[in-house]
Amino acid sequence: MFKKDKHSRIAEFEKYAEGRHHWVKASMIGSAISSVLSIVPFYYIWLTVDEALGAGDPDTMIGYGWSAMAFAVLSIAVYILSLIISHFAAFRIAKNMKKILVEHSLKLSPGAFDEEGSGRIRRVIQDSVESTHEFIAHNQPDLAGMYVLPFAIVALLLVFDWRLGVAALVPVMIGGYISMSMMGRSSMQESMTAWQSSMADVNNKAVEYVRGISVVKIFQQTVDSFQSLKGSIDSYAAYCQGYTEMARRPMTAFFVLVNSCVSYVIIFGVLIIEVLESGEISSGMVSNVIFYVVFTPLISVLFMRIMFSSDQTYRVDDALMRVNEILSIEPLEEPSAPKMPKCFDIAFDNVRFSYSEGLAPAIDGVSLELKQGTITALVGPSGSGKSTMAGLAGRFWDPQDGSISIGGIDLRDIGSSNLRSIESYVFQNNRLIKGTLLENVRLGRPQAGPEEVAEALRLAQCEDLVAKMPHGLDTLIGPGGTYLSGGEVQRIAIARAILRDAPIVILDEATAFADPENEHLIQKAFEELSKGRTVLLIAHRLTTIRNADLICVMDRGRIVESGRHDELMSSAGKYRDMWDDYQKALSWKVKEASA
Question: 129: which residues sit within 8 A by CB, 6+ positions away?
Answer without folding.
Answer: 94, 97, 98, 101, 319, 323
